[in-house]
Description:
Elements: E1 4-14, E2 17-27, E3 32-36, H1 43-51, E4 58-63, E5 66-67, E6 78-81, H2 93-102, H3 108-122, H4 137-149, E7 155-159, H5 167-184, E8 187-192, H6 195-201, E9 204-208, E10 220-224, H7 226-231, H8 236-241, E11 248-254, E12 260-263, E13 266-269, H9 275-280, E14 285-290, E15 295-296, E16 308-318, E17 323-329, E18 332-338, E19 350-355, E20 361-363
Parallel strand pairs: 3-8, 3-9, 6-7, 7-8
Antiparallel strand pairs: 1-2, 1-4, 4-5, 9-10, 11-12, 11-14, 12-13, 14-20, 15-19, 16-17, 16-19, 17-18
Helix pairs in contact: 2-3, 2-4, 3-4
Amino acid sequence: MASITLDHIGKSYTPGVDVIRDLTFEIRDGEFMVFVGPSGCGKSTVLRMIAGLESITSGTLKIGDRVVNDVHPKDRDIAMVFQSYALYPHMTVYDNIAFGLQIRKIPEAEIRKRVQEAAETLGLNAFLDRKPKALSGGQRQRVALGRAIVRNPSVFLFDEPLSNLDAELRVHMRAELSKLQRRLKTTTVYVTHDQVEAMTMGHRIAVLRPCGKDPGVSNLTQIGTPMEIYDTPANLFTAGFMGTPKMNLLKARLSDDGRDVLCHGVRMPVSEAFRAAALQHRGRDVVLGIRPEHIGAAHEIDWQSDCGITGTIEILEPLGHEVIVHFQVHGETVSGRLRSHTALPAPGDPITLKVKTEAMHLFDPVTEQRLS
Ligand SMILES: Nc1ncnc2c1ncn2[C@@H]1O[C@H](COP(=O)(O)OP(=O)(O)OP(=O)(O)O)[C@@H](O)[C@H]1O
Ligand SMILES: [Mg+2]
């Protein structure tokens, strides 16, 4: 069994300065877990602690049933692939893939079998005799993956392995990696700051942020399936971080009877999901979260709404299949989505768009947590 259990894990590089604080969760056996979060929030640090490349300052780390805090990296049965997948330039692709097995004194016949299998899986058969310099970036990346999979480890750790590839290759390799993991069923932790990778690749996502100075705050903001994270963000950080374009997070207030949300003079009925919470918080300030895809032109939308929000257009972003429109409403910028490219308004024009109020999210502006 190769679950990974983090129990109150903490890390300080400098005494008194926490980089990781109070991380507690489990990565299940066979699971593909994605770590996502802004630059510097500690994603690589956590991965390196799991790999044993970085010491653990506090807490307990288990792989399967074994506490591994003080276990040497080579005894953890883990294979790691980094963003810069340094291959040995003087060795052939075959030897690059085989090297990790050769130093472990695996019999040559067994090595040949495993390398052949990996090459088959990764589409590298034709390149086994080449040196890395005669390969494309994507092919080199596959060699680095091959090196990891021939070891048949209990855990794969990936630290932004696709970020050096061009957009098209990334999309391709993303799908290949997902397929590979589903076939091998090897417990996997995958670090990225690419939202699309996070949403599409993992069984679950752990959304991390810098833990800051407040001793009560952990790096973990939410953990869940991609759809849970997208549909029910637990707090303002996750709400603002996951989704492109970003969710609108607007100053608002609940009416005194708790039935409506008042936002820039627009009165919107509280959605069913928040009815009980809104009653509890009636009359109070809230943050209203609405994704841009839930704000659209009356003649283009497929939902019923009497709630129009009016402002002045700042900028239009044509994305090909749609146009994102950012408009000013009483000093706040609101983003919505237009489907049609014809008869587009221009910056400076007034615009009124309809809000899909059933898709609202409500947060407490003080605790920053989703109202529940
Ligand atoms: N060896 C080190 N010594 C001191 N501080 C470090 C060390 N390694 C990382 N840090 C600090 O720890 C924090 C977390 O770094 P880490 O590399 O884990 O972030 P990350 O989430 O992987 O970021 P990125 O997305 O940019 O790769 C950063 O503030 C970084 O400056
Ligand atoms: Mg990193």
